[in-house]
Amino acid sequence: METELLLVSGRSGAGKSSTAFALHDLLSVEGIRHAVIEGDALDLAWPAPWEHRLAARNLAAVWANYRDLGYRRLVYTNTVAILEAAELAAAMGDRPRVTSVLLTASDEEVRSRLSRREDGASLQAHVERSGKAAVVLEAQADTSVHRVDTDGRPVRQIAQALRALWIG
After folding, report:
1. Residue 141 belongs to a domain with what CATH number?
2. Residue-number span of the structural domain to which 27 is assigned
3. What is the secondary structure of 17-34 as a DSSP string?
4. How far apart are CA 107 and CA 88, in angstroms?
5. Number of domains making up the chain
6. Strand locations in the chain (E)
7. Which of 23, 71, 86, 127 is the most interior residue, by most CB within 10 Å?
8. Which Gene3D superfamilies does the record cross-reference, listed alphabetically (predicted)?
């Protein structure tokens, strides 16, 4: 079986993590072997090591372990993963078939979601960064990237939509 990579991107509050976990549940029930990696956890450090491409380096190491155990499907979440698709696919070392998805959400929906995990100045900073990320993602996302609106939709429904785009 060829290797398959599902990249799930979107602004903060678009539902990346929630959708990935719901997709994990769907695939698990169906007996579809897969792994889920939260890209943010691969280079979460201070000072931020982005200039060292630590996320891609860590993805290569972690995926090698999954691959050795027979995994061929990876769900990878990160705000800008769709903009780094070639680098992330190369880091996997096995030339995966890539499906890229940009989760979208309105400013109102994002503020509501982020207010459940942030408050005060932190909430305002996250909302502002999220808005800027939305503009960049929409402007720079390739036309091959699937856009999936998450506003007002149950997370399981969004996960089902991603499953259909990725696996069929």
Report:
1. 3.40.50.300
2. 4-166
3. HHHHHHHHHHHHHTT---
4. 28
5. 1
6. 4-10, 35-38, 73-77, 97-104, 146-149
7. 23
8. P-loop containing nucleotide triphosphate hydrolases
